[in-house]
Amino acid sequence: MKILVPIKRVPDPELKAKLKDGKLDLGGAQWVVNTFDEYAVEAALRLVENADSGDRDGEVIVVTIGPDDAGVQLRSCLAMGADRAIHVQGDDVELDSLMVAKTLKAVYDAEKPDLILMGKQAVDGDANQCGQMLAGIAELPQATFAATIEVVDEGKALVVGREVDAGVEYKKLPLPALVTVDLRIVSPKSVVNHVTPDDHEYSDGPRYASLKGIMKAKKKPMDQKTMGDLGVTATAVVTELEVTLPEARAAGQIVESVEELVKKLHEDAKVL
Amino acid sequence: MGNVVALCETNGATLRSNALSVISLARKAAELHGGEVILLLVGKGVSAAADDACRYAPKVVVVDNDGLENYLAETYAPILAKVAQDQGASIVCATATAIGKDVMPRTAALLDSGMASDIADIETADTFKRATLAGNAFSRVKISSDIICVTVRQSEFSPADALDSVGTKSDAEAGELNSYGAEFVKLEGGGGGDRPDLNDASIVIAGGRGMGNGDNFAILEKLADTMGAALGASRAATDAGYVPADWQIGQTGKIVAPDLYFAVAISGAIQHLAGMKNSKTIVAINKDNEAPIFQIADYGLVAKWEDTIEPLTAEIAKLKASQV
Q: What is this model's ipTM?
């Protein structure tokens, strides 16, 4: 199975956001691979490998759109085990989801993967749009919010367990298809490719790059492209005007007993 | 000038409560755009809810087709796009439910439109306010496409009231349905039971990893039943398998803003706070007085849940009894 995994770099979500002139101050940002995209790389590797024998049947290609620096995040995905990378030059701050989807569609056309696997959203913009837009433009079936993926029909289709409001919805997609992943896709038994023994339990979370993986990643191919090379002429229709930080919620009071709590909820907050 | 098409989810003969939030946004948007609100119902048998929908808007468009028995983004998105164009829409919107979040970006792509996700407000005809960075920042975005696609955060828009006049219903064709081979297989339900939906509940009780195991959530169920509350959980608790994943409140998971929120044995990771910090009154019960949850709680009780939940249930039951 040939899998294309689009990734985005994001400012480290554990660090506090700072503003400058009404925009996020990214001057000193620590960039990391978007959490959900890293999970997509992990899921892609689980789909193509036999975790017991170490053999692999398929290819995992990571792609990003960003400035020179974004190559660092592509390398870290190669170090996890992806086979090669495509770096499309672009100013990631100026892009909107639709432009990203159009650019990725051009990459999809060039690579013709069986599956596009990506995070359900970037944890900076929290937009949750790109995958669905790409599926729409590329006329592919889609499964968003994947918690589980099982390969069925001799590798010609997937059954995806999707986290929806009322539980888990199972949806079957013939390949080629697009899947966006949610948190639980990196659980020990969330990906079943029927090549790795079905009872295999992965460790929870995305794999760490081994030293060997990091060394190998330095030699793996990374294609450089521009949006012009890909024939993308779209401009952004969504512009961010301003970023503000919400007012901090005033700290409340510590109560000493259950009786006091109920009294205050009833008499002061009037919510009981 | 342009109209506003709002996709509304239905449940039998009525609109789902989440639809009332997108209707609120649609009314505000229609005023700013000088157009009218058109509610769109899509699915097999949705005609049954048309009368209810007509109470909320001057116009209701119904696409009722046997081929739409199960929701699929692949078949729904082209219908949304076509109705939007046929109805002269400048805004197409839905509540950011699992369906809204899944179908609206695909619709935007078909319309070559920009989209604002999970908005907290519409400020002018083309400018929207929305939370980013797990709720740690707000972004104002301007969208320049002819049609703008929007999903709304349910907790930011109060439910619309019915209008005095009753709207008119019309049917539209589904057109050719192409699922691109995708099939609905089955839905495995969560464990909510008869309790109020997390997104609608005015009181939510959420438990965290500190509950220790799934069985211990029974004590929270009793507390919830005393107040007609919904039950939720932190990611740590759902990941540990204590309760189903659809109970999860946070950046990933459900975003709620009830009148009263109880965080029990939840430390208050940033991703959890993103899902509940707009609640009107927050109560934190945690044995660790350093837990970050206390920084945003209106009322904090530093105590073990084992020592507090049963007395709290009894105390509230006593209060309720005195109010009858």
A: 0.95
